[in-house]
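Hi all, long-time lurker, first post. I run a small reading group and we've been trying to get comfortable going from sequence to structure in the token notation. Rather than ask abstract questions, I figured I'd post a concrete chain and ask someone more experienced to write out its structure so we can walk through it together at our next meeting. Sequence below, copied exactly:
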Amino acid sequence: MKIAILSRNEKLYSTRRFREAGELRGHEVDIIDTLHCYMDITRSRPVVRYRGTDLPKYDAVIPRIGASITFYGTAVVRQFEMMGSFCVNESVAISRSRDKLRSLQLLSRKDIGLPRTGFANRPDNIKDLIKNVGGAPVVIKLLEGTQGIGVVKADTNKAAESIIEAFMGLKANILVQEFIEEAGGSDIRCFVVGNKVVAAMKRQGAEGEFRSNLHRGGSATLFKLSKEERATAINAAKIMGLNVCGVDILQSNHGPVVMEVNSSPGLEGIEVATNKDVAGLIYEFIETNASPNRTKTKGKG
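-- Answer (accepted) --
Happy to help. Here is the structure in token form:
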């Protein structure tokens, strides 16, 4: 098969692993810088141009769209969809998962476990907003943040009010969530491919750090999921319409709660922690499911 990897950096671990795993399985793999793609959208025959030439029709496309280029990146994925290529994650599903507020609303509608979450626009709602999620300590998140950036823990109601006022003063969109103390600064990353959790790891935040992101010095170990945790991850991926994703879960006193569904999860942490060939498992999914014009919008909202 002829396969394209949309990635801004061919030296990243995940990009390299996708190329190696694909070539090992006999596929022809091209790495394409998403921002160097441009589209002819006026012709009856959809085309993606790249560095002065028309790109061929690929059997499959693996989108690795960073959060900072979601708008343009999903437009490129959509153009490949129009050309009939099988996109591992569809443009609509990527956009859906990147909007933190929208994704939480969709998960809530399907009764997926979530931390109590508040969202408001006006400063006069701040006190009630904090009270409504259970009071301090609370976690305040920028809607556009990634890898733990723009996530702040406030230990008192007064501190929470000050932080929220500061963010609102900057016209930033934020979520306020209950702090799941019993999680102990750890979370579970469930790697979903198709309708299966193919690997899971527990991430533990560094000493004194409530965020468990590996980019912030956290550590990861192999983890065995409970039946409820596995079902939660699979259902969350299905609601988002994602074929490949990382579902981040916290263990709370009222069961597993979903923190985020990541449409471009990194491979390094999960492969090292679990010793599984996750890239190879994704190619197995592609080989089974890729066919012309197979892409269609899944999930709702």
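A couple of things your group might point at:
The radius of gyration is 20 Å.
Residues 227-240 form the longest helix (14 residues).
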